[in-house]
Amino acid sequence: MTAAAQLTEAILRPAPSRTGPAVAQRIRDRLAGNVPDLVAPLPPGEQIVVSVPILRQLASGGDNPTIRPDDPFAWKPAFVRRSLGLAAIDACLAGYFRAPLEAVGPVAERAVAEWERSGWRTFHWEPWYAGLGTGGRGAVLAEASNWATGVWASLDWGQFRTAPRLGGPDDQWVCPGPRTVRLKGRSEIRIDLPSPEPSDSGSGSGSTTQQVLVAVAGGSPPSGLDVQLGYLALVAALRTPTRPAPVRVVGLWPQAGEARTVEVTDELLARAGDTALDAVRAVVRTRGGSPMDGAGLGVGGGADALGTTDRLGTGDPASGSAAIEALAAA
Amino acid sequence: MALLETDDRRWKHRQPITFPGYSVRHGGGADRPNRASSNESDADGQVPPSLLQWTPLAGTALLDRIRITGRPRPAADPNRVEALRRIIDDGIESCLTPVAVSGADRRRLVVTHAALSRALDRRSGRSDGSIAGRRELTVPIACGALVGVLFRQLLTTGSFGDPWVDGLGALAVDDRQQELVAWIHRLPAGERDGLAAEVRRQAAGLARRWPDLDAAWLPRTDEPIRTVLSDGAVELSARVDLAIGRPGLDVASVALVAITSGSRRPAHRDDLHFSALVETLRRPAPPFAVATYYSRTGELDVDPVSDELLIAAAERTAAGISAMVRQEEP
Predict the structure, then answer these.
(1) Interface contact B226-A142, CB threshold 8 A
(2) A2 and B157 in contact by Cβ < 8 A?
């Protein structure tokens, strides 16, 4: 059996629900109760965004982590590869192309043509791409083809009975208050599993669909990244209270030929919530505030010490709404 | 699917592919001028070479030279991987302190072939101890960078326009190459013209000799590959100009190719063997061949990958890491 077939089989393995019905609500309440105090030192109207890259900086920052501000945004091939690569994979799954190398050019051309015709930007990079010469475009296409080929070759797509959902908007949950704290999670692939048991989400939705998230990363996996993968499940659970939390999160590092799977449990979600609070504290400290030392969520010890300078790097930070925000910030 | 063994029957029924909005080039190359199907007939319309004159391989002959090594392709073998890891771990154990290996705030030592070569050269007194990671910009380096991006463009899009314009355009969108692009623009006109002429000459050779690569072989260009060793303390990192063949199979199916715009040097093979080692450690099976293509002359060196080659690469890597660590010690 190929490595891709083994990984896909592991992704699709039935998963008994390991999260209780009210855990997401409990974490939501705890976050909503603690975050306003933590961000109180910041000026009103200020915003904080917590994401996996922030958690990564937190994990590698030792006892007194600081979170560096984002670099000014400018388009480059690495910012296009995720959205174009996922669209190329989608076109391959639809049977239009045999492999991403064939797909990236036509998909990009069509996006540009559509933007020129209607003004609608599916990916946001269309005007930038259209302004490049053939050399620049070739570099963009090569980057996207590489990224997509890494993902394409990592999974045995024929095993999926229902089409996986590729890309889409980031999961987000906003903690209300005069200083907004937004938790964001980005997954490249979402796979629905038929549930082996009736839903016990307690949400009353009766949903029996279980979800597996797949996050694609650059570099190689640092040790102890369970919390970072668990954070993606947490944000998905916070975002949609009517759905049970994802049952499993898979991290994929094509450059290293590695994949790591975490099964989502109450304990993991609570640790991810603690880590999100730690991240908020670190951001406030970095911005010159002195956060009140709010209580954790009662399970786990905050951030994992990953002890690595590597990045989970979920790819394109500038697709969809992220692109709009990045452009606005620039 | 093994390299270059395309299962055309599987896809024939889909041709010609129609993707809404445009038609798709299949097999590519229709818009690429001067492509040779098997052997190079001549250079740029000059007098055909005599029978006694050596002629660079081109087209399918070039691919066959890489594909057919005359040896059985190595099978995936976890024992091989384990043995190679042990060679490196044992070789560097004495120089990595326990704190460095297991400490909570350890830093991962990223090892590239350039860093290895530098450390080994310094140890043997062949180097004056230049600053690690600092690159002195020269015309040959600029030529290599330009030919590299043109090769990538050729394999991705099937063509280029003016190689000089396209090459600079590709480098311009790469934020790691901004310094080089500025340096090229600052070159005196005579040197810049000479560089442009050489880039155009080598690019013409690439276009003439390299055939289209079937997308089903999953060609990846400028692909970063990496693997983590020694309980996360060390990361081996390489970048290959071309990786071709579906990874993750039970039998070696990937070939790695480096493009070199300069003259033949022994270090090229060391570099490529290091890449073969990294690929072996990150996948179930090793690559079956590594090759260096000299774009200046059209020469092609191919090394079938054997256990002996990998063991030698592992021993050199261990020696290089030890040298790196010791040279960094105060």
Answers:
(1) no
(2) no
Q: How far apart are CA B175 and CA B181, in angstroms?
A: 10
Per the structure, the complete domain to which residue B301 belongs is given by 78-126+215-328
Whether residue A85 lies inside any domain: the answer is: yes
Distance from CA of A161 to the nearest CA of B (A): 20
Q: Give the DSSP letter of residue B224.
A: E
Residues B201 and B278 in one domain: no
* Polymer length in residues for chain A: 330
CATH of the domain at B92: 3.90.320
Question: Do residues B320 and B116 make contact, with C-beta atoms less than 8 angstroms apart?
Answer: yes
Residue B104 tokens read as: 């909570």
Question: What's the pTM value of the predicted model, to 2 decimals?
Answer: 0.84
Residues 175-234 of A with CB under 8 A from B: 218-223
Q: Are residues B287 and B168 in the same domain?
A: no
pLDDT tens-place string over residues A33-70: 999 999 999 988 889 999 998 898 888 776 667 777 77
- Count structural domains, chain B: 2
User: Whose CA is closest to B319, among B268, B277, B257, B283?
Assistant: B277
- Kindly state whether residues A109 and A208 are assigned to the same domain: no
Helix (H) or strand (E) holding A253: strand A248-253
For residues A304 and A222, give the distance between their C-alpha atoms in angstroms, rounded to a whole number: 11
